[in-house]
Amino acid sequence: MSLGQQLAPHLPFLRRYARALTGSQVEGDRYVRAALEAIVAAPDQFPRDIEPRLGLYRTFQAIWQTAHVEDTDSGSESSTEPEAIARKRLARLAPLSRQALLLTAMEGFSIEDAGYLIGTDAGDVNGLVADAIAEIESQTRTRVLVIEDEPLIAMDLETIVRDMGHEVTGVAVTRDEAVALAMEERPGLVLADIQLADDSSGIDAVKDILAEFSVPVIFITAFPERLLTGERPEPTFLITKPFQRETVKTTIAQALFFDQATVPAAG
Fold first, then answer.
1. Cβ atoms of residues 140 and 256 within 8 Å
2. Rounded CA gap, 16 and 70, in Å?
3. Which of 21, 89, 95, 260 is the most exposed place for a label (fewest CB within 10 A)?
4. Residue 183 is part of a domain; what is its CATH number?
5. Are the beta carbons of 35 and 59 closer than 8 angstroms?
6. Is position 265 within any domain?
């Protein structure tokens, strides 16, 4: 099997990580392309003594960390707006903490593998993750609209959202209901399933909402590969079903991290 064939199954999930890290589909996919170009240019330098997925993420991490340091040192006048917003919030948050959190909670890497990827001792990763969770969650509180037609999943999402200190404005099970709830009480974040109760689409519901006002969105799907191709406008933040509690918490925190207009919850 060629190296390209070994890496192909992991590319959608690297895009997910890169988009969550940068807060942008365009920027995230750009870093992924840069990683792939580096591998193509020097395939003999790709680490062969580890799993292909780990080697792919390691190559990406090297490019991201180098570019991120250069952007921070230069002030990055060419940064996209979400990146500029996030950089202000990064003043008190170590970038390694955020990477450790995403790699473990979202991408499912072990503590040891995460340490390898970010170039730190495994013993330090737990502390980095704890620091990231505490810092990010303390920065943002908002109102959340849940678009989910499966009652048990909706209940799980509501519980996670409230446990994080956010307010749930409502739970919608159809496209029309989602839009109506969003217009009635504008949310600061939307969690949207893809397939809804009446065979309508959560994607269409979100498009209707975004036509009225801007709000960060996290999509939830059992088939993430279909929305992580890098070939068309696609979600920046994506949760895979079945999901883990920490994955949801991390993705919510990261989506709000890049949002400049987070509205504090009442009370």
1. yes
2. 23
3. 260
4. 3.40.50.2300
5. yes
6. no
